[in-house]
Amino acid sequence: MTDGGVESGGEPRPGRARGADPADGGVQAGGAPGPRGAGGADPTDGLDRAANLLGALSLAVADRAGDAIAGAAGRSESAAAALSALLHFLHRPSVDLLGRVLGLTSSGTVRLLDRLAESGYIRREPGADGRSTSIALTDAGRQAAAAVSVARARVLGAALGSLSPAERATFDQLAGKMLVGMMRGPGATRWGCRLCDVGVCRGGEGGCPVGNAARERYSA
Q1: By the 8 A CB rule, do 144 and 74 touch?
Q2: Verdict on whether the full-model pTM lies above 0.85
Q3: Rounded distance, CA 27 to CA 109, Å?
Q4: pLDDT tens-digit profile of 183-218?
Q5: Domains (ranges, CATH) in the chain?
Q6: Closest CA to 26 of 2, 49, 54
């Protein structure tokens, strides 16, 4: 893995000039500002430092967590997310529901399940209506899913490791508020909680902020 736009050893990535990387201040080689949008408009207008840092942080966490969970599953990130969702909150879902959670097409979900079945991680069973198919983890799949959760937890724990207990509590509140602000409506695909250990939030003080907001917003 590389950090800051350079390969291990500190040399620039091949094909990129020193100064052209955002890690070098977002300027072109020679110190000139980067390209502007149509009509000379700055495409970063309205982007402040907090937003820029959020973008960098989200990529850093996503990249490291993605590598970790894929390695733990021995498959792709989508496979790791499927295993995690099946372990933590999906009880024998239909192929269609699993596809919506992962944000995959029907054919993509079937191909993913074929690969998981080849690994001995899942089995297909008759669905509730006798016409659909439900998905269940095998014992090997549960072990792989648990390894995915451990790998994710280690990355997230390391990401928060530089915060004091008070800062971590503040981050907890802010992150929950931001997640509620980004919450989508019913029928959304590629669920944001697809890798969550939902028991952690449900068992914590206040519960899941998104789940609480959804109940308030959509309950009759």
Answers
A1: yes
A2: no
A3: 42
A4: 988 888 899 999 999 989 888 888 999 989 988 988
A5: 59-181+189-218 (1.10.10.10)
A6: 49
